[in-house]
Amino acid sequence: MAATFVQGPPRAIHPVHAVLLASTVPLFLGGLLGDVAYARTQQIQWSNFAAWLIAAGMVFAGLALSWGLVDLVRAPRRGGRPLLYVLLLLAVFVLGLNSSFIHARDAWGSMPEGLVLSAVVAVLAVLATWVGFSSLRAGGRP
């Protein structure tokens, strides 16, 4: 008698992981908007807001990255979408850390590097969130 393996439905992203991942987008986007506001008004408080929002985004991105790494190791098959997701989150984390270091400078000393890096990190965070949430297609198939 031959043994058959019936694969269950693909797992969706865990709700806590989803909250961690979804929180990175508004935080990094808020950091970008804070940098844009500082570039237009030169009021230092906007740069401080951006620095704090980026630091908070780093916390959530780091937690989502660690969760994604655990899911990647536990996945039955590696590569494809889970690997792309982890690589995008790793890029968000590394560039976000660099952005945090740049925002630690004097407010005007962080321009224009901080603004450009905030834009890149915000776009990467949106892409990572998109890839993370699109693990299931319509109809429940991976």
From TrEMBL:
Pfam families listed in its UniProt record: DUF2231
Transmembrane segments: 12-29, 49-70, 82-102, 114-133
Matching InterPro entries: DUF2231_TM, UCP029509
Alphabetized UniProt keyword annotations: Membrane, Plasmid, Transmembrane, Transmembrane helix
Domain annotation DUF2231: ranges: 14-132
Domain of life where this protein originates: Bacteria
Name of the molecule in the record: DUF2231 domain-containing protein
UniProt organism field: Azospirillum thermophilum
